[in-house]
Request: fold
Amino acid sequence: MPLSLNYLVKRLLWSVSVLVGVVVFSYLVIILSPGDPAVKWAGNPRGPGATKAVEEARRELGLDLPLYLQVLNFLRMVFTGDLGLSIAYRQPVFAVLSRNLTATLELLAFAYLIGAPLGSLLGVLAALRRGARLDGFLQTLGLALASTPTFWLGMAIFAALLPSGFAPYGRVSTGLALATGFQAVTGFYLIDAILQLNPSVFLDVLARLIPPALAVAAYPLGVCLRISRALVADALLEEYVRAAVAWGVKRRAVVWSYAFRAALPGLVQVAGIAFAYSLVDAMVVEYVFGREGLGRLLFDAITLSDFKLAIGLLVLVATFYLVVNTLADIAQALIDPRVKL
Amino acid sequence: MLAAIVVAGVLAAYFLVYLPSTRRTAVKTLVYAYNDKITGIDPSIEDDTGLVVIGSVYETLLRYDPVRNVTVPVLAESWESSENGTVWVFRLRRGVVFHDGTPFNATAVKLSIERARDVYRETGRGAGYIWDAVEEVEVVDDYTVRIKLSYPQRLDLMAAASYAAYIFSPSALAKAGASSPLDPKLEEWFNGGNDAGSGPYYIEYYSPESEVRLRKFEKWWGWNLANNPDAPDVVVIKVRPDPLDQYNGLLAGEIDIASSVPRANVRDLAARGFKVINLTTFHNYILLLNVRRYPTSVKEFRLALLHAIPWDEVVSVALRGFGRLGSGILPYGFPGHVEGLRYTYNPTLVREYLEKSGVGSGAVVEFAYQSDYEENEAFAQLLKSRLAEFNITVVLKPMAWTAVKDAGKEVWTDPDKAPHLIISDWWPTMPSPYDYLYSLLHSESQEWNWAGYNNTEFDELIDSAYELEGANYSEALQLYADAQRIVHEEGVAVNLWDEVRPFVVSERVEVPDGALNPLYMYVIRFEYVKVRE
Reply:
């Protein structure tokens, strides 16, 4: 077993300290920025009792306490999993987050299913044609995709589709969903449509998912293409690979069982980091396509001084990064026997 | 290769199978894009954007008709006042049921009014101050309530208010597990997406950050009066704060009524076949001048600034025509509005006032405004360029709304840190001039009086007027007018413009006159809207 208890304990402690840092830093930045959350919590009062209402709200939120006590209180709330009600919406923070999390994850996962395998495949293709025109083209493509601003790409795709009469706006056609009795159960609409045996909604959801997913997929596709190309090209020059060729091993086996397998641990590591990074891309792109999700939620939470929702969301994103990176490390260790954790 | 085949297959399905219209609905659906997040739906407490939902789900006793400046029946069929406006009797409509089937009666009215009033008295939250004068709500019988006031008041106007005047079913208490009307569990229950109203639509799904779905209430008492077989069965209110997002949604066919699109795109949409309904609203933008910080603390300097504004360009340049130049403080068509309380662009007068003010050349003033309102930004640029002609430098401070409010309030605690000029946008809770004048300029209103204005004469005038509304309405309006003249002469605040809001409507939808009412901001009376398939 490549995993040790020591690694897991260290990783856990490190993760907790990162989360503490995220909470403390975010809290200070949001609370010390202009905008009084107490006004929103008081319901933006207008009458003669408005000042009283805001003061009462400040007390309820604990904003009348010294700053260090506010931070400690908030840390306690985060680590006991009870952030209470969102200041802006007066609904439990975790209920609001979970409603929007699934929308973003669906987009992210779908984009990755397109981007990572396709990028890796094209990378192998470029490595096999090293130095040829195709190699140059694919490397340029990878660089362009990895460095194109995702929001711009999203806007370009949306604008390009408009003249066709179909604009992939939102997650599902409202009229179709209502007409066919579609219900969001898991929050992953593709899965919900399958579970409810609703092919028309499935296709509609898919049609609206592909364009934004292509925009989100650009980054992992570009990164995986370039990394996979570099690693496979290096592996192809290794002596054991050349020996395999000399021994007459079939070309397909040489490429996939020798060269690509050797490249896989590094590719998994980079793909893991890119996956976490793509979460932010998904949060931006969903805004462009009129989709619900974490991106819109975070923007609104900050403009509404809803520090509970904003920090809850940032903790969620940080946890996502930590989990994905840890899983990538573990996967690398499982694939590559030289790596010990 | 395999991945390429899969992608090609998916794309083929995407183009071939999807192309048939997605609008094959058997349900008449209307999608309304609303430009703000929904902050709550407690009918007694909500004092902000939740009105867009509450207005369709709950009903008031009366409704305000801004064209005739009268109140019209809703849940009350008739009403009368006696004893100099201190006793009001409302006779209620029979045969009305709430969404859960419980009957509407006088007990519900008593509970609703008292809860709104008492929550406000206890916590300062909500707009329950409209019931401030209410001493006692007496249930005379199932369909009659007698309300006794501590001072004369136009209670019919309060009963038609856009906040805190909604009637809910007493059964909500039991459903919420609340021990009393003030139990916080009741507010949580409402904000959890539950309703206890009697309006033409009930809440089917509530996600305040993104979408609210309303379904037609077949037992609504007013369907015969509405006489609209094409009324939507389902109304989806999509929360879409970004105007460009609403524009895209219209083009995509996913939005039927947009409440906010970029003004520059309105003509384009009209050319594409969308209908544009320009609603002159009671939402106005008031420029407040900090009277506690030099140099705007000097009256003559304030008047110089106000005469340096190119007023004839404000609506055409800042608002691209979507506005009406303001006069006094109150919007056009609102009770107490006074024509002729405007300033004019007059360079000679500006120089005279500047000289009289004693403020030397090269004055610098800070101007704070909400950055996500495109009209504010355009006005700010206009102001900056024109004041520069008089050697006055304007430092622009665009900021988020919450920061604007913080900056505005600071005039009372640290006036030198508050901006010299600030824009506050306002819409009324109740159809009374007191709503604007108290909130924006009374010395007790330190949450909203961002000018730091403290004038006893002004305060007394509007306080007297408010108490006179119930006994002598026309004299009360005269006092409100006098109060606005004082503000005008002192150059403390001015209504820059009344907003004209272009609602953009898809071809399949018809929004008749009367479905929109400037008092009930963004509330569309969906029962009158026609949806065609």
Q: What stands out?
A: The first helix of chain A runs from residue 5 to 32. Chain A is about 75% helix and 0% strand. Residues 11 and 273 of chain A are 16 Å apart (CA to CA). The two ends of chain A are 9 Å apart (CA to CA).
